[in-house]
Fold:
Amino acid sequence: VADTLAQITNTMLFAVSPLYALLNIIHFIFLIVLSPSGLLKGSVTFSKVHAVRRADLAHQVIEDALVFLIFAVLLFLSFSRASWDFGGALPTREYLHTVCQNDRSNRGGF
Amino acid sequence: VIASLFSFLYLLQLIHCSVAIITMREHRWPYIMLFTTIAFTTIASLTTISYTVALANITSLGLRASRTSLFLFFHNWSLVFIFIAIAAFLWDRESMIRTKSNGASGKQTVALVVVPLILVFFMFIFATAQASASANWRLTALNEVPGRNPWVIAQHASKTNDLAYTFYAFVIVSAIDIVVASILLSRAARKASISDKVGNQNHTP
Structure:
């Protein structure tokens, strides 16, 4: 039940945000790799140009894959309608207090 | 081939997202933002296909330059909209937790709205500026007589690069903002005890 109630929040925290952070780390790495002071430093040769093109392609593929995953996870959330409003209920402090008291009295009963 | 595959997948997601927007009664705003993001990403992906397939036999450099600028424009704006969509989802969760817990989750900070707004403002400016500067230097390079004034072209190219770096700096800062917003959301969820499995065990809706 806890998983159902907090499903969207947990998905945002443990799937979407890390994926977005990873996407930006990838941007950061490829910005350095593709910068003029990186691969193309010094004389320009065919092998260097090919390396840049390969790196550019790798950047595009990884970026597309991560963006697709982020979209897929966010769209997956639209299936769990009940979870959007926590099923209309959230445990209050009074409720938790009652649960704890009941738990204690049950234990005493045994 | 890869661009075509991703374009197809994005189109499917676009349909899925439009269905989600139509069928959902509330919480539509994050999905409207997501729809815009997917639309921009799809167009950016389609321009990549146009470059490799449709324009393969076209030697017009002007067309190629305009295609690159179009790709940059839609790609950059899609990056801005991804950030807006994720921030909207996080904001939606935080306000829902606050409403349902009657203030037990603590106060919602104004910074959660102000900081993304400032970031989005600058990201939009630099995203557009980089695309237009790219078009500018490519067209300048085309109109210049070869070998006459290479420094002007080099300066234009350098400016475009600088704008790209500034834009990506804001994009990377946006990731830090999302991480901070996530930490605040997890704290609010813990305070409201929605992630507390002991508290929720007997609480079947």
The helical segments of chain B are 2-23, 28-54, 61-100, 111-143, 150-191, 197-200. Residues 196-205 of chain B have pLDDT under 50 and may be disordered. DSSP finds six helices and no strands in chain B. Chain B touches chain A through 60 residues (CB under 8 Å).
